[in-house]
Design a protein that fits this description.
Layout: E1 2-6, E2 17-20, E3 35-37, H1 42-51, E4 62-66, H2 90-99
Length: about 110
């Protein structure tokens, strides 16, 4: 199968941090053995998933990534619109990876 990915910057693309998922804890919100903050663009992640054989059944496909012009991981990128009502600004996006670890607990994240 053919897949075309229009690459886009990762707002947290300037760093990689956190533990690599232990696959015995695989779930709907974590299903790849990559760090919590992986730093990859969508295209890089698609190439990695395909190249590592992580698609269901170990399938691979013909992936073409259309890259972002003039983007590097050192480029500070500000999203033109909020990706979620709960992520209204760049500061919230930078902090989100540390708070999402508590979503499955009884701790309130203050969302109402």
């Amino acid at each position: 199968k053919k897949m075309i990915v229009l690459d886009r910057p990762n707002p947290n693309g300037m760093y990689v941090d956190g533990p690599i998922l232990d696959m015995k804890h695989k779930s709907g919100v974590g299903w790849l053995p990559i760090p919590v903050v992986h730093g990859m663009t969508l295209g890089e992640l698609a190439l990695m998933i395909n190249g590592e054989g992580w698609l269901p059944g170990g399938k691979v496909c013909d992936v073409t990534v259309i890259p972002c012009r003039n983007y590097t991981h050192q480029t500070r990128y500000k999203l033109p619109i909020a990706p979620s009502p709960n992520l209204p600004n760049t500061h919230a996006i930078y902090l989100y990876p540390s708070t999402c670890l508590f979503e499955g607990t009884v701790m309130s994240l203050g969302r109402g």
